[in-house]
Amino acid sequence: MISELAITEVLSAVARRKREGELKPELANRIRDAVLADADSGSFARLHLDPAVHRVAERLLLATDSVHLRTLDALHLALAFSGAATHVLTFDRRMREAALQSGLNVIDL
User: Fold this and answer.
1) pTM, whole model, 2 decimals?
2) Residues 6+ apart with CB under 8 A from 96
3) In 4, 8, 38, 66, which residue has its Cα 20 to 30 A from 27's Cα atom?
4) How many domains does the chain have?
């Protein structure tokens, strides 16, 4: 499963590394093209940010006391629930804790 939000966040990380000089512009563009090609390949179910997903994210934000859940993380988790996901992939410690607290399994990257 994949969402447009996930694609945008991945490409935001690529852009940051390009700005910081860790990636050459040509490589950043190739990564963008590869991510978009994979997303469009039909190999992934596309999850959509509709009002119901926002309502779940809002419930998660209000229900979480021990983890500092950020808006985008809550939306990612709500998207995962909308697709009946059992696992999420993340680089982020806070997202990891929130996913575990929400009953999802985590694959750390």
Assistant:
1) 0.86
2) 90, 106, 108
3) 4
4) 2
